[in-house]
Structures are given as structure tokens and as C-alpha cells.
Amino acid sequence: MSLQHALLVSLAECEASGYDLTRRFDRSLGFFWSATHQQIYRVLARMTDEGLVAVRTEAGQGRPDRRVYTVTELGRDELARWTQEPTPSETVRSEFAVKVRGMRFGDPDAVIEDIRRRRDDHARQLAYYEANCAKNYPDLGALSADDRPLFAVLRGGIRTERSMLEWCDEMLDLFESPGDDTPPTDATGARYETPEAPVASRTPRRTA
Amino acid sequence: MSLQHALLVSLAECEASGYDLTRRFDRSLGFFWSATHQQIYRVLARMTDEGLVAVRTEAGQGRPDRRVYTVTELGRDELARWTQEPTPSETVRSEFAVKVRGMRFGDPDAVIEDIRRRRDDHARQLAYYEANCAKNYPDLGALSADDRPLFAVLRGGIRTERSMLEWCDEMLDLFESPGDDTPPTDATGARYETPEAPVASRTPRRTA
DNA sequence: TAACCCATGTAAACGGTTACATGATTCG
DNA sequence: CGAATCATGTAACCGTTTACATGGGTTA
After folding, report:
1. pLDDT of B140-190, one tens digit each?
2. Phi and psi torsions of B196, nearest 5°
3. Most CB atoms closer than 10 Å: which of A25, A139, B62, B110?
4. In sequence order, what are the residues at sequence separation of 6 or more whose Cβ sits closer than 8 angstroms to the Cβ of residue B59?
5. Nearest 10 degrees: CA dihedral of A131, A132, A136, A140?
6. Is residue A33 helix, strand or coil?
7. How far apart are CA B17 and CA B54, in angstroms?
8. pLDDT tens figures, B85-142
9. B93 with A1: CB under 8 angstroms?
10. Residue contact A95–B110, C-beta within 8 A
């Protein structure tokens, strides 16, 4: 029951239509809480019934009308109440981790290929976040109070992606050399401390 | 539709009853795929219908009978097939991140308190994983082929927890000093490179 | 003219969570 | 004697996903 709160946060930042929200959930907020438009429209309808948001219809000429939502006072109260309650610990659910664990019961090479694909996905996402960060927060000393939470969340994204990327690399080192028994020399993995440079594709690794 | 696969992996490792699986999902596998016993029993029933697992009843004297599940050949095929298909990218869904982002619309101090609580949770989980790692894999050079996937997943857990812990610390630095405008001096956060030592509670920080 | 964007929805199915239920055994 | 453990389940609810539906406007 918390798409509700994600919507309240997004609408508190700026009023929007269901369609606008859908696009926001394709980027930005959506990197930390995904939702499809069907779900957004339905929850929005419920929230309107409950008085958490209010709608105003803007006639569009030619194109369909836009139903623009704003947070009501009741919605603002609910938002404040929600920030005060402790966030329940997130239930981890990683099909990927389960698959790695079960790789010896299937096709190990296919799983390694999967790790490689993931690795590149994380590298791409990391590059995206870092570009975003450099662009929007060039001067870390000048962070306004309003910017700080946004910046903090972005930093979380960066850390998560970097962590996943490094994990994938560690696994590739662990699995790609099945013959030779060189142990992982440094399990703490100090690579990519400066991640800008070496974040290209890793597919043709060690073959060239 | 993938608790199924988690159960197949777990049963491929060792046959078990629903109750056994429930306990496994409270630890070990459960750190990467959580499930309650109700769900496990239901999916197990369906999988039995579909012929992916087979049941054998062991009469318990006094206590209830144990229904012990094993993976069938069909189940093993399904497991192999599953490892071959690319894992869909995980939909991130972090209520915590959303709350941090929306903190300025609520009670910032309460959210900071929440971050502190999380930080300690991650420190605890990290310590648990690292003890587990040190105990089960004391000699990284002697990792058997069967151990490697298990080890890899555990390493993922360690990396994730450490990453979250460091992120929380970064946020506390960012938010705990609202008056003074000292910027986060090193946003890359090189602390806790050797995480054994400084992973105590952080609650009384800067007050003593 | 075909494909895509704008903009909104309905309906069905699936998966996960919470609450309820049973009953014997063992431990403090 | 009460609580926890062993061991299994049912039922209702809620949130998410996927498929289907509509219809005008813009762009290649």
C-alpha cells in the first residue's frame, strides 16, 4: 500500500496528470519505485475518493483532456504521518541471486552470460546516474536544503549500481576461470574506485 | 512466478518438507528471496500437481507426519531451462528511498531517525554475513566448484549490506549537520574499507 | 499510411500478505 | 501451566502485472 505515498511525494513536488506521473515513473522516481500507468490511474482514483488528492480537468484542444491532480490538505497530513512512521525493512527478492545459487543444477555458461549482461546493464545505469549527478549537482558545497534529499537518493542509486557492477565483476573473475585455481586475490574488490574510466562493455574481455 | 524456482533450487540442494523449506527461507536462501510458509505450501501443492516435485510421507510418531518433497526429472528439466533464460531486470522498489526523497514534506528528524535505524540494521546484517563467510569459507583458495555459487551469492549480500551501510552514513553526514554548511568532503565515501572494526551502533554519535 | 505519441481507462489473472485454525510435544 | 516448537494447512484480501480498448494528432 505504498504506491500511494510515492504518488503523494511526486505530486507534492509538482502537480501532474496520470500521464505525467507515468512518465515520471519511467525515470527519476521510477528508479526507486516502479509502477505502470494502469496501476497509477487506479490508485489515483482511489486517492481521489479518499480525499488525498483533488482533480481539475484541463480541456485539451484536439487531444484528450488532462486530469491534473494536486495534493489536498488531507493528503499533506497523510504524507507527514507517513514520514514519521518507521519504514518496514525491505524484503529482498532477487531472482538473479537465486539463479546464481542454482547454477550448478542448470547451464553454468548461460548463467555466466547472464552475469555479463547484468554487468553491462549496471555499468550503463551507473554512467547515467553519474552524468545526472554531475549535471544537476556540480557544486556539492552549494546544495540547497531542498536539493539534499534528491541528491541523497541519487547517491543511493549510484552506490547500488556500483556495488552490483563490482559484484558482477567479482563473479566473472570467480567463474570465468574454471580451470586455473587462482583464488580471488582481493575479495574486497578495490576496483572502480574512480568509476568514470573503466565502465565500458566487458563482453570481449580477455579474448582480444 | 518464481518462488517456484527458488523452491526447485532449494530442493535440488537437499530434499525437504514444507516446514524445512520455511526455516530455510528464514535464513540462507531467504536473504535473497523471502517467502512465508503459507505461500510455500501453496506453491508446493501446485508444483506437485504439475509434476515438478514428488512427495513422500514420513510418519512421525506423536508429531505430525512430514511430507518430504524431492525434485522430479521434470522439475530438473524446468530448473535447467530456467537457468538458460536471461533473468529479467529486477524492478527496484524502495519505500525507504521514496521516503528520503519526500522528507521535506514531512518530519525530517523522524526520517533521519529512520536512516539511523536502517544503518544499524545493515551493520548487523553485514556482521552476520561476514561471520558466515569467514566460518564457511576460511580458505578462499580451496573453494570447490560446488561452493563457488554459494560463496558468490554471499559475497553479493556482503557487498549490498556494506553499500547500504555506507549510504546511510553518507546521508547522516549530509543531514545531521543542518546548520553548518560543510559539504560532504568525499562523496565516494572511502570509510569502512575494513568493516570489522567500526560497525558498532551509531546512535550516540557526536553527542558523547 | 503506418507507426508512434498523447491521454485515459477496464478486466482478468496472478502472486504475496495477513489472519485464522489445529493439535501434539517439549522446555522453563 | 504457559510458551515455544513441530508440522500442516484454508480463506480472504490486496497489490501488481498483463492484456485489451479507444481515439485523435504528429512524424517518417
Report:
1. 999 999 999 999 999 999 999 999 999 999 999 999 865 544 444 544 444
2. -60, -50
3. A25
4. B65
5. -70
6. strand
7. 11
8. 999 988 889 999 999 999 999 999 999 999 999 999 999 999 999 999 999 999 999 9
9. no
10. no
Instruction: Calculate ∠ Cα A7-A12-A14, nearest 5°.
Output: 100
Residue of chain B whose Cα is closest to the Cα of A36: B91
> By the 8 A CB rule, do A167 and A100 touch?
no
**Residue B178: partners with Cβ closer than 8 Å, 6 or more residues away:** A145
Phi, then psi, of A105 in degrees rounded to 5: -95, 5
The most distant pair of C-alpha atoms in chain A lies apart, rounded to whole Å, by: 69
Give the span between the Cα atoms of A165 and B188, in whole angstroms.
15
* CB of A37 lies under 7 Å from some atom of strand C: yes
* Cell (9 digits) for B106: 514531512
Question: Of the candidates A178, A52, A102, which has an alpha carbon nearest to the alpha carbon of residue B143?
Answer: A178
Cell of A53: 488528492
For residue B75, CA distances in Å to A111, B6, B58 come to 18, 12, 21
**Strand nucleotide closest to residue B43 (CA to C1'):** C15
Q: Which of B99, B93, B131 is nearest to B117 (CA)?
A: B99
pTM of the predicted model, to two decimals?
0.86
Measured between CA atoms, the residue of chain B closest to residue A91 is B34
